[in-house]
Design a protein that fits this description.
The chain is α/β, with parallel strands linked by helices. Helix content is 38%, strand content 18%. It has two domains: 205 residues, 3-Layer(aba) Sandwich (Rossmann fold), CATH 3.40.50; 238 residues, UDP-N-acetylmuramoyl-L-alanine:D-glutamate ligase (3-Layer(aba) Sandwich). The protein contains 16 helices and 19 strands.
C-alpha cells in the first residue's frame, strides 16, 4: 500500500512521526515540509487576495506560521491572528521565523481566505466558548475557508463534531489521511480534500483509501465463462434484481444470469432462468452469486436465501437478505461472502450477531466482519469496508445524488460483477465501491438508478 493511500489513527500518526524523528528528522523540519506544502494549495486558491491564518497553541499553529511565511515570501497579502501563544518548541520557533503581521484574537479582520490552524489532529475535547466564537466570527468574515489537517472541532478517529464549525471549501491533510476526512458528520464540512506528504512510512495494519482500480481488458482468448458467470437471485420484487443485473453487465462479468419466474421487464440481453433455483446454483461455472434485492422477507424468501447460501461460489448478500441473515445461515459457508448493509441493515446484523453497535463506523464494520466471517461494505455517505482479517478501507465522499431508490441495488450488482471476474473478494468490494461512486459522478444530477447502472461501464472504461 502506498503511504499516500494510508488512513491513520492519531496513535498511528504519532508513531510514524516518532519514527521519522528517531531517524534524524527534526519536528521543525517536518513543520516546514507540512506548512510550505499546505501553502502551495492555499496560494492556488488565494493568489494575492488577502489571507488570514488563525494560529493556535500547538504544532498545528506552528504549521500556520510556516504557511503564512511561505505566502509572504511569494508576495502574498497575509496576516496571522494569534488565538493563543505558542506552547510547543516547534511552534515557538515557527512564530519567531514569521516576519509578517500578527494580530490579537480580538482584531476586526476581513479577507478572502481564512486558514484554520487553531487545532489539528488529536483534539478530543470540545472547543472553548471563546475559541468557537472566534472561529465562527472569522469564518463569517471571509469568503472562503481552508482547514489545515482537520477543521478545528473535529475528532480525528471518529469523525465526530466536538464544536460548531463553519463549512470549509478545502481541507489539506498533513502527512496522512485521517478517518475524519471520510467519516460523517465531519467529512460533510470539509469541502475538497488534498494531501501533503511529509515522508511518513507505511504503517502496519493501517486502513487505506479506496482509489481508482487498475482493470485490464479481457484476454485475447476470453469468452463469457472465462470472464465470469454471475448468478443473480431475484425475488418478490423483480425490478431490484434487474437493476443489479444491469449494473453487473457493465462491471466486467462476461455472463449475467437472472433467476426469476419469467422474463417480463427484463432487458433482452439478460438471460432469465425460470427453473429450480437449486439447479441454477448447481452450475459449476458460477463464479459468483448475488442475492437479496427485492427478495422479500416471507417464508419463501427465507427458503430462497438458505438455498443461495448453500452455493459453493463466492457471494454478495444485499437488501432484504440482510434482514433475514443470522449466524445459523452462515455456519456452513466456506466461500467468501460480502454483505452490503446500509445503516438500518447494519444495525440489524449487529443485533443478529449479538454486537453492541458502539463506536465509529470503521470499528463497527470490523466487529461485524470478525463476528460473521463476511466482508462488510457498510454503505452510505461514508462507506467503509471491513474484512475478517482486519483489513479496512474507506471511500471518498460520493455524490449526494446517490440518495435515491435503487442505487444500492446498482452497488450490489457492481461488486458482484467484480467478484465474478475472479479477483480477491476484498479487492472486488473496493473496486465495486469505487466504480459505483465514479458512475454517480458521471451521471451528474438527479439521475435514476437505471441511469446510474448505465454509467458503470463508462466508469470501468476509465480504469483500463
Amino acid at each position: 500500500m502506498p503511504s499516500s493511500d494510508q488512513i491513520l489513527t492519531v496513535e498511528q500518526v504519532r508513531a510514524a512521526e516518532t519514527a521519522l524523528i528517531a531517524g534524524g528528522t527534526s519536528v521543525e523540519a517536518l513543520m516546514q515540509v507540512a506548512g510550505r506544502g499546505a501553502a502551495d494549495w492555499v496560494w492556488r486558491m488565494a493568489g494575492r487576495h488577502k489571507v488570514t491564518v488563525l494560529c493556535g497553541p500547538g504544532n498545528n499553529g506552528g504549521d500556520g506560521y510556516v504557511l503564512a511565511q511561505a505566502i509572504r515570501e511569494r508576495g502574498g497579502n497575509v496576516v496571522v491572528v494569534l488565538a493563543t501563544d505558542p506552547k510547543t518548541d516547534a511552534s515557538r520557533s515557527a512564530r519567531q521565523a514569521y516576519g509578517g503581521q500578527v494580530l490579537d484574537r480580538d482584531a476586526d479582520v476581513h479577507g478572502e481566505v481564512l486558514v484554520d490552524c487553531l487545532y489539528g489532529t488529536g483534539l478530543t475535547r470540545p472547543l472553548s466558548a471563546d475559541d468557537a466564537a472566534l472561529l465562527a466570527r472569522l469564518g463569517a468574515a471571509h469568503s472562503r475557508r481552508v482547514a489545515i489537517d482537520l477543521p478545528s472541532g473535529v475528532e480525528s478517529d471518529s469523525g465526530a463534531l466536538i464544536g460548531a464549525l463553519p463549512s470549509y471549501d478545502l481541507t489539506i491533510a498533513l502527512g496522512a489521511w485521517k478517518f475524519a476526512h471520510f467519516l460523517m458528520p465531519a467529512s460533510a464540512t470539509m469541502g475538497m480534500l488534498h494531501l501533503v506528504p511529509i515522508g511518513l512510512a507505511p504503517q502496519a495494519g493501517a486502513a487505506h483509501l479506496i482509489g481508482r482500480p487498475r482493470i485490464t481488458a479481457p484476454a485475447a482468448d476470453a469468452h463469457k465463462y472465462k470472464r465470469g458467470l454471475l448468478a443473480v437471485v431475484g425475488g418478490a420484487m423483480p425490478g431490484a434484481a434487474i437493476l443489479a443485473a444491469t449494473a453487473a453487465q457493465g462491471a466486467g462479468a462476461g455472463y449475467v444470469r437472472l433467476f426469476a419466474p419469467d422474463a417480463r421487464n427484463a432487458p433482452a440481453d439478460i438471460v432469465v432462468y425460470a427453473g429450480a433455483l437449486s439447479d441454477l446454483l448447481a452450475d459449476e461455472r458460477n463464479r459468483a452469486v448475488l442475492v437479496g434485492m427485492g427478495l422479500g422477507r416471507d417464508a419463501a424468501a427465507r427458503e430462497r436465501l438458505a438455498t443461495a447460501l448453500g452455493s459453493p461460489a463466492p457471494m454478495v448478500v444485499d437488501a432484504d437478505a440482510l434482514m433475514l441473515l443470522g449466524p445459523h445461515l452462515l455456519a456452513k459457508r466456506a466461500a467468501a461472502t460480502i454483505c452490503t448493509p446500509h445503516e438500518g441493515e447494519l444495525a440489524a446484523l449487529e443485533r443478529a450477531f449479538e454486537l453492541d453497535g458502539k463506536g465509529p463506523r470503521p470499528t463497527r464494520a470490523l466487529a461485524l466482519a470478525r463476528a460473521s466471517g463476511m466482508i462488510v461494505v457498510a454503505k452510505g455517505p461514508d462507506t467503509v469496508i471491513g474484512a475478517p482479517d482486519g483489513r479496512l478501507a474507506c471511500a471518498r465522499r460520493a455524490s449526494s445524488w446517490l440518495s435515491t431508490a435503487g442505487t444500492g441495488d446498482v452497488l450490489a450488482g457492481t461488486i458482484a460483477s467484480r467478484l465474478a471476474t475472479g479477483i480477491e473478494p476484498f479487492a472486488a468490494a473496493c473496486e465495486g465501491v469505487w466504480l459505483h461512486g465514479e458512475a454517480a459522478r458521471l451521471a451528474g444530477a438527479a439521475f435514476t438508478a437505471g441511469e446510474l447502472a448505465g454509467k458503470v461501464s463508462v466508469a470501468l472504461a476509465g480504469c483500463i
